[in-house]
Amino acid sequence: PCLVRTVYINSLNHLLTDPPWTSQRRHFSALIPKKEHGKKRVWEQSQLLDVLEARIQQLQSDIVLDVQHAKVQFVKAPKSGRGASSGKSHKKISGERTEVGKTISKGGGQTGKGGGKDASASKSRWMEKLIQEKKTKTKKLNLKLGIEDKPVKTHTMVEKLERKLNQWAMSASPVLVQDNSEARMHEGVQLGVHCYLEACVFCGDIDRAQRLLLTHHRMISRRNLLNIGLYNVMMRVWAKKGSLNQIGRMFILVEEAGLKPNLTSYCAALECMGRTPNCSPKVINRVLRQMKEDGLCVEELFRLCVFRQDERDMVLRAIQTVEPDFQPSINTVLHTCSSPLVKDFYTERADAKYPKLAFSLEELRERFSRQLSMEQASTITIHSVEAMKPVTPHMAKMRDLLAKQRIVWHKALVGALRESNMILASITPKAVRLSLYPYLCLMDQKDYVDIMIQSLSNLPPSGESLHMLAKELGNRVHNKFCIRMKSHNQMVDKLSHIYNEYAELLAKDSKEFDVLPRERWWKLEAEHSSGPSLLGDKTQWPHTVVVELGTYLVDLMVKHMKVNSDILNPAYERKLIPVLYHMYTFRSNKQVGFIKPHPILTQMQQDAMETTLTFDSYVMPMLCPPVPWTSAKFGAYLLTPTMLMRTVVGANQHEILLEKCQDADLHAVLDSLNQLGNVAWRINQPLLDIIISIFNDKGSEKLDVPPPNSEAPKIPRYNQQDSATYSLAEKAHLKREMVKNKKKCSEMHSLRMDALYKVSIANHMRDEVFWFPHNMDFRGRTYPCPPYFNHLGSDVTRAILVFAEGKPLGPGGLKWLKIHLVNLTGLKKRSSLAGRLEYANTIMDDILDSADNPLNGKKWWQNADEPWQALACCMEIANAVRSLDPTHFISHFPVHQDGSCNGLQHYAALGRDVIGATSVNLIPSEVPQDVYSGVAQQVEEFRARDSEKGLKIAQVLEGFISRKVVKQTVMTVVYGVTRYGGRLQIEKRLKEVDDFPKEYVWDASHYLVQQVFSSLKEMFTGTREIQDWLTESARLIAKSGNTVEWVTPLGLPIIQPYHRTRTQMLKGTIQDLSLQITHDSKQKPDTVKQKNAFPPNFIHSLDSTHMMLTALYCYSAGLTFVSVHDCFWTHALTVDTMNKVCREQFVALHSQPILQELSNFLLQKYCSGLS
Amino acid sequence: YGKCSACKARPTLKQPASPCSPRVLLQRRTFSLDSLSSGPGRPQPQQARTDRASPSSAPTHRNLSAVAVSVQDQSRPLGRYDFLDLGEVEENTQRAQLCRTIRRFIIDPALAKLVTHHLGPDLEDSKAAIFECNPGPGVLTRTLLNAGAQRVVTLEGDKSFLPDLQALECLLDGQLEVVHCDFFKLDPMGRGSMRPPAMYSDKLFTDLGISEANWTDEVPVKVVGMFPQRIERSQLWKLLYVLFDRLSIYRYGRVELNLFISEKEYLKLMAKPGDMLNYRAFGALWQMACHIELLHKEPWASFVTSSKNKLAIPKSRLPNDNLCLVRMTPRKDLFSSSLTPSNAATLVMMVKQCLAKRKARLVDRLNMWSPDSGPKLLKEMGMQEDVLTGHVYPMEYKQLFELVDKSQEFTQSWLYEEVLENTQKEGWI
Fold first, then answer.
1. Do A578 and B417 touch (CB under 8 A)?
2. What is the CATH number assigned to the segment(s) A361-632?
3. In the record, which residues are listed under signal peptide (chain A) (predicted)?
4. Chain A residue closest to B359 (CA)?
5. Is the dihedral of CA B235, B237, B242, B243 positive or negative?
6. Domain A820-880 adopts which CATH fold?
7. I want to staple A84 with a disulfide (CB 3.0 to 4.6 A). Which of A146, A149, A267, A1139 is the partner?
């Protein structure tokens, strides 16, 4: 569906023709000198390109690169006047001379500046190596060109460049070039010890904690690794106990370690004094005095420290002993986001109509308490949709057996865990080795065992890698621990209190607010500052601890879960056999530890067809509106820890970056996430029922409802006895069949389970209204947090979801529903909106038939691109047209508006690429343009030309080049697909074409991908240049040892987490695990990934910015708005308004000097040491 | 295809050359024999295993046969050929260095002679065809022919070397066949295009007129060449899989490999039980399947590499100073009534599972597959109860498997199921 024509046309038209850029002028006045006659000039494509090119050159000459270096050599040759250089090199010279000349003069101009640093001292080994390599390269080139005696002039130029390169190399990354391993060890040890201490403290084993800290403290080599935070952990413990002596000792230790007490240390000291009855004011005064000496003030204490339980009150009591009138001030000044893009949004609130939810305050509060108790339980068990099937006696028997076995296993595991804990406790750990013991005492043994048993039912029949399983178990323990920690810290009451007040903002029966959810929450929190902080100081456990803990639990499971071998077949001899096996699978010569269920277990599970599913609570949508994100650390679920930015486990660079942000910088991003999270949803029940009926029958691959395993192909058994009758080739064939079928079976199983989860969750929520809290990936693309069931999912899940809130269709609503339906079918891609509407009207019979007899009628809907959404839409249309007055029909149905190749749209706008912009509908046109058809057409032209020239493959391809063949490649080219990947995509498409001769597939795909690339190059010139510039910049940044960072126009900082792989070995009883860590910021960046990923990531960061802007402005217009990346959803009534907002924001975004600012940022960040 | 017209006319599928014709040539080539025995040559490798054939026997043998032929010679017209010139070392080196793929080459005539010598001693009489992998400029090819090899098939993957080889092919009378094929791309796993140099082995063998043979028959083909360095390991694994399954080249009998592999890989291949670091499934299975013989060690430097891409010698904890010419002859008695190509995959799986952790107790592994069966099996094998998997000899694994396979208890074991999931050789025939 490409409606973007209408969405973007007018605005871009405006953008390209409207001369006085007055509305946007103020935003970039700093960058474009006003005195220029620019006011009168029409903003043309070329102008930006000029700026861009200049920047590119500036950037390139600043970051002197080896490419240039090589070029320099070519220039020299003719200057030296020697005839020795070959004709080949002459050609190169003439082609490149002009450009090289330019860069050299620029580069040369900058040499000399920034000198004076001692070169040898900070130059690292690898830098030296790099330079050495360059030198040899130069030498080689010289040799090739036959240059023996260099003329003085060029010689000095080369030297200058060389010197500059050296300077640049030194100054570029002074930190990174230091020894990485040491820094990493520091961080690793600190985190490890911190979590260990916290765990010990949580389970009340203070002795163990104290002992560990002291052993570390006593060993000088270890002591140097500690930081103040670790001492603070113990201070807080002693503060709780009111032991002033111990606090005093800790302060001495801190001093011994050469550390400085920080706010938290003083906070603990004061807390302790607050707890001590009749604590002498002299002592308290001394502490306060010392604090002042250390440059810390009491106000900061209350503003920055995280309090648990009654800590805050105790600190206050202590201070009030000496200063009876003291009251911490409440900071109520709101800062606003500085981005010019959202200035209006925050300042002009008079017209804003923030939407309310259709619930009373009472209802919302009741929903909150239900959500709270669900999260407190940390897991939830629901009935799967298969529960609707009748229970056969065999099933009943198996369920009974399984239930009995579970009790046996549970008991065995609890016993085993208790025993192993006792052994662990008795072992006096080696001095600095951190045992797992405290992590195994955080909860009752039975809680751990519950987690283990739960993981058993999720284990696929083909098994799971030990690493994955361990990670899952470890994370579950951590999750449960975090939730316990929160209630332990007594923050639940406070949370309830604040939430109940916050609900007024959203409820329909309370007063209107002119503030945003985040602002309201923030204010409420400031007002209720007493008691524990809501912000938990949760520390993510080190990944190694999570995996080690998980492995430990898996080991227990493998060793202690047994079953009688004759349980299913009494004919077998009775033996107690393990239920799980640890074994290895071999993947391309790598051995991977695997945990596999015994066939008996699989059989039992399959036969029992158990109908309950147990999920972690965060898997379910929320029953109340999520807690608004107020900072990078707080928001979304009530208790379950959630990251604002989802990252690879263990990658902390994003978190650090977000923490560094000014508060106000993130506001726009947080507010848009809150807006997306506040949209209420409910289930489209009639549709869900149809889906369940098919799901519980035989499924349907055509309709994307995965069939059950009973429909899977049978695996041919092959008998030892028969083997003589088969020839070798037949055996090989049989084997291949077996492998294929086995693979198909396990694929079907995982698809089926995935669908089962989704449909079952939907079924569980069928009468509910619910919410999806949102977070984002590191490029700012937003996602709903619940993993299985959400609106980002497949056609099936999307079709099940409708807005909880209904709005009348209004005058244009029905029209939009019809157009939406046509879009979902994938037909009429080249028709105008009017054409699509007309088409919809001609097929009204089919539509109504589909709605009335979805499974027994003409089944028109089943041939749509997105059949289930189409069916849902048919039903909505049917209901609307049959209502008394369609304009008053209350519709809950989300209508989608898609971008047409959104990445290319952004590129075209960035590059002011007129032809490109036309083909992706940024420019008005009679009928919608289709870039894919455009490319296909262009490719066909190339093909015809080649065919005439007698190229065999071009002739073979005659009549096979279609939109479909090239679509995926065109779409992904913007996201950095390489020729290699592109060829695979095309190969796949060609294989789907039945009558295409298979023997030509490889050649044809190879040929086609080349043609697609060259036609794109022809159509999107600016795009290519921008892409090249981005890639080259990223390459240089990465080469210099930095990671690529940038900031979106909304102020979201972004960093690419691609580094060289580091392998970490984890010792385990069951097997050693080697973890491949690719995100370690202490490692050198992975140049190839940094470079290849930058253009697509940058474009994603832009499209996410555009989405966020649209979300915000839709919010102030009172719209319901959700997004699936570049596809925006709203009510039929408000489609026009949303489109308008979408266009305006697209224009506003691209009116910003985006590339200019990126360039400035990169220059400042990576090149500031140069000039 | 730049073949000469004579070649084009000749069918690709052909009968082995008549028994007489090669002998005719032999006499003309006595020069080469002389040069082998009297030429400067290289010092005979002393580090090689002592059990190989004495080098001096080969020339004598050749001289004898030359004499024998000379009688017949009188009744036949002389052939067109003469002793094949190996070409200038300099020139050959340059040509090798122009090769666009990353490869090592045998250019040194003395080295070629040495390899030829190891393929002997009965090159003239041996019925086995010699497959020479990636000959490049063809120094070894010519040396083999000069030494009287009856049937040399060069499998060259790089097009640029083909014309010269084909020219040579035309010059000769059937002793040399040139195929555009990369031996290491036979029966690829992927589903890419099956164009030369990738090829299905059945096409190759059928075209050459070599038919499937019994396992116990004499060696039908001797492969000589060098493993491409980067895929050495995976190639060895692939060959191992097809060997146990009797697929691919092993459908045609016990193909003998005479290949240069890196020293470290050789040491791993030959690691003995008890060497807990290096004794792995890889070596155990090769030792089980083949009679492995180290023929010669040659420093890396003796080989010429294509110049643009300098091949770094892989680092290793094991010594890795040489390339080793290793002969791997599949054992005649590998397959038996209990071990057949159809259940051999389970054996491979079993050994891989056992040796994934060499310090695990064998009895635990066995118990996993079938509870309580471990002690019984070990007793039958006459092994200690606490024997570690890393201490069990390859042949003992084979015996163990044969016992396991007979035992009823194992029929319920997941071990049999497992075999399927671990196969990655869908594409192999």
1. no
2. 1.10.1320
3. none
4. A1071
5. positive
6. Helix Hairpins (1.10.287)
7. A146
Domains annotated on chain B, with CATH: 89-330 (3.40.50.150), 343-426 (1.10.8)
Residue ranges of B 54-83 with Cβ closer than 8 A to chain A: none
Taking the domains of chain A in order of start, what are their residue ranges?
182-321, 361-632, 820-880, 914-1019
Percent helix / strand / coil, chain A, rounded to 5: 60, 10, 30
pLDDT in tens, A1115-1150: 988 899 999 888 999 999 999 999 999 999 999 999
Measuring CA to CA, how many Å separate A210 from each of A189, A213, A234, A257, A537? Answer: 16, 5, 7, 16, 20
CB A516 within 8 A of CB A337: no
Name the nearest CA neighbour of A585 among B287, B417, B277: B417
- Cβ <8 Å between B192 and A1002: yes
Contact B195 A576 (CB under 8 A): no
A498-525 confidence digits (pLDDT tens): 999 999 998 888 888 888 899 899 888 8
From chain B, pick out residues whose CB is under 8 angstroms from the CB of A581.
368, 414
Mean pLDDT of A186-214: 86
Residue A362: what pLDDT? 92
Query: Which tokens in the block code for residue B381?
Result: 């094998």
pLDDT tens track, chain B, 429 positions: 444 444 443 343 344 444 434 333 333 333 333 334 333 434 444 443 334 344 444 443 433 344 344 444 444 333 335 677 777 888 888 888 888 788 888 888 889 988 998 887 777 777 888 999 988 888 899 888 888 888 899 999 888 889 888 888 888 888 889 999 889 888 876 555 567 788 888 888 988 888 888 888 888 999 999 988 888 888 888 899 889 888 889 989 999 999 999 999 999 999 999 998 899 988 999 999 999 999 999 988 888 888 665 667 777 788 888 889 999 999 999 888 888 887 888 888 889 888 988 888 888 888 887 777 888 888 888 888 889 999 999 999 999 888 888 877 766 666 666 665 554 544 443
Mean pLDDT of the A290-311 span? 84
Query: Given CA atoms A174, A175, A180, A182 in this order, what sign does their dihedral have?
Result: positive
Measured between CA atoms, the residue of chain B closest to residue A566 is B412
Say which of B192, B343, B426 has its CB closest to residue A739.
B426
Helix, strand, coil shares of chain B, percent, nearest 5, are 45, 15, 45
Whether A591 and chain B come into contact, CB under 8 Å, resolves to: yes
Neighbours of A778 (CB within 10 A): 22
pLDDT digits (tens, 9 = 90+) for A808-827: 999 989 999 999 999 999 88
More confident residue, A39 or A292: A292
Query: Which positions 386-415 of A are in contact with B (Cβ < 8 Å)?
Result: none
Residue numbers in A near B245 (CB within 8 A): 732
Asked if the Cβ–Cβ distance from B417 to A599 is below 8 Å, we say: yes
* Mean pLDDT of the residues in chain A: 80
Whole-number percent of chain A with pLDDT over 70: 81
User: CB neighbours (10 Å) of residue B80?
Assistant: 10
**A568–chain B Cβ distance below 8 A for any pair:** no
A607, A704, A898, A946: the catalytic one is: A898
Residues 214-273 of B with CB under 8 A from A: 233-234, 237, 245-247, 251
DSSP A999: G
Hey, are the CB atoms on B423 and A732 less than 8 Å from each other? no
**A898 noted as active-site residue:** yes
> pTM higher than 0.80, yes or no?
no
For residue B247, what is the nearest residue in chain A, using CA coordinates? Answer: A728
Q: Which residues pair with A830 in a beta bridge?
A: none
User: CATH class for domain A914-1019?
Assistant: mainly alpha
